[in-house]
Amino acid sequence: MAEISNRLRYMTEYSEPLVTDMLRYSISTLTWLVALGVATLAVPAEDTADFPGGEPPTAAQRELVEQLGDKSYNVRDEATRKLASQGSAAIDVLTKTLAHADPEIRTRARSILDGILQEETAGDGVENRNAAEPTAAQRRLIEQLGDDSFFIREEASRQLISQGAAGKAALIEALVNPDVEIRNRARRILKRILHDEFEARLAAFVADVDAKRQHRMPGWERFKDLVGDGRDARVLFASMMRSEQPLLSAYANQSEELAELFATRVSWLQERFAGSASRGPAIPPEVMATLLLIGSDPTLQDRFQGVTQFYSLLYYPSTKQAMMAGPHRQMLLVLLEKWVVAAASTGSQYGISIALKYDLEEAGLQQALRIIEQGTTHGSLLQYAIICVGRFGGEHHVEQLKPLLDNETVCHTWSNTQLKKNGTIKIQVRDVTLVITLRLLGKDPADYGFKLLRESPETLYYVYTFGFIEEEERQAAHAKWARENSGGN
């Protein structure tokens, strides 16, 4: 009997509205339903749907929440500042924190959340009717969200939704109400109001092609500086806001969460789209635009956390196809060029490799020549830089390559027992340099003993084929070049 009583109580608190009415008005019917196994219809006590743009709380966010109740005022104050700086990226974790057992944490979370919600609708040309405190009428509507009558609950929900921003304070207060039904409904209503406000802001932003208003769109200033502020740019950025608002907010606020949020997003996308074929699903352009905007910012020290995964995303055939053929092609290519520059500046070969894959002639050649001029000792990076000069450069770049003809740094090794039974096949920087130099001069590398070369559309020849099987072949090739060019001829 106690077990049935507990099940009835569980069902009363957690089931969907119509089933809840049945439970409240007919114990016999409820017992029958439980006997039939309808208990599986129960839903969690808390609405698990995130707010628009919401992300699961990160470990760092959870740590900051706990620091809101630290014994040290300085720790509490710093945690408050950091959470507030995250903007909309912190909305979801803060709403969950309103039910925390520590009153200090609850109070600070409420204050931070109020400030973020006020900031979200300020100065965008959208009417802001946030109320400082809930009115008596609003509190009555909140209580009616838990009424025995489904119709009264629905009517109270409708009225609170119609109030829009004016009802936020009452709804936030209701998120910690003891009644599960009230909490769930308040959360859903607040989510809808935030969503409607958000869409109104985006609509006003897209329509304001003459830039007559100030719009608080995180990341927009840099985005428009790079790609312009016409209607197409605004449409794309509005899509970026819908898809990646927490990431953009963290970026605009220079949040310490940015590196983790960026890496987590890239990792998820890599798992979701890994191995996509050329005709497979492509990562949406608004997602790639956001990642490129943030990843290409030279002021961010942690921007390359997760760079390997992001490079993989860019290398997927479906990603390239979507970026090169879609309506946002030009804007995406501009952002990609900026990313290439940023990636190349870190000493990574990824930037140059992507420039080759996407035919980014100007950005690729510029970065390749800069890398060669700087005299990097990174053999693999040098190899790709030299190839990039051969792909996008001309005969007049031969002089810049000549100093590398004496560079014996090994930039690639591989094995093939059919070609060489014992040992590895090594490629030196000077081998790659000689092949590219000959090509730029219109000569055939095969005449100099390069037997392994296999053509590639992206790197001219596959990177592992630039070398020689035996050292004697290498020495002969370079000796021939030296003889032909002795005395400056």
Structural topology:
Layout lengths: L1 H13 L2 H9 L1 H9 L23 H9 L5 H13 L5 H7 L5 H18 L15 H9 L5 H14 L4 H7 L5 H28 L12 H8 L3 H22 L5 H16 L11 H11 L11 H9 L1 H9 L3 H16 L5 H8 L3 H14 L4 H14 L5 H4 L8 E5 L10 E4 H12 L14 E2 L3 E2 L9 H14 L5
Antiparallel strand pairs: 1-2, 3-4
Helix pairs in contact: 1-2, 4-5, 6-7, 8-9, 10-11, 11-13, 13-15, 14-16, 15-18, 16-19, 17-18, 18-19, 18-20, 19-20, 19-21, 20-21, 21-23
Describe the structure.
The chain has 489 residues and is mainly α. The chain has four domains: 2-41, no CATH class; 59-199, no CATH class; 217-345, no CATH class; 347-489, no CATH class. It is 60% helix and 3% strand. It has 24 helices and four strands. The chain has helices at residues 2-14, 17-25, 27-35, 59-67, 73-85, 91-97, 103-120, 136-144, 150-163, 168-174, 180-207, 220-227, 231-252, 258-273, 285-295, 307-315, 317-325, 329-344, 350-357, 361-374, 379-392, 398-401, 429-440, 471-484, and strands spanning 410-414, 425-428, 455-456, 460-461. The protein has a two-stranded antiparallel sheet. A two-stranded antiparallel ribbon has the order 3-4. β3 and β4 (460-461) form a beta hairpin. α14 packs parallel to α16. The model is unreliable at 1-54 and 125-129 (pLDDT under 50).
If helices are DSSP runs of H or I spanning 4 or more residues, what is the number of helices? 24
How would you classify the quaternary structure? single chain
Uncertain spans: 1-54, 125-129
Helix content: 55-70%
Structural class comes to mainly alpha
**Mean pLDDT across all residues, rounded?**
82
Spatial gap, N to C terminus: 103 Å
Biggest sheet layout: 2 strands, antiparallel
Query: How many beta strands in the DSSP annotation?
Result: 4
**Gyration radius, in Å:** 31 Å
Shape: elongated
Q: Could you spell the SSE succession in H and E letters?
A: HHHHHHHHHHHHHHHHHHHHHHEEHEEH
Q: Strand arrangement, largest sheet?
A: 1-2
Q: Strand portion, in percent?
A: under 5%
Give the number of domains. 4
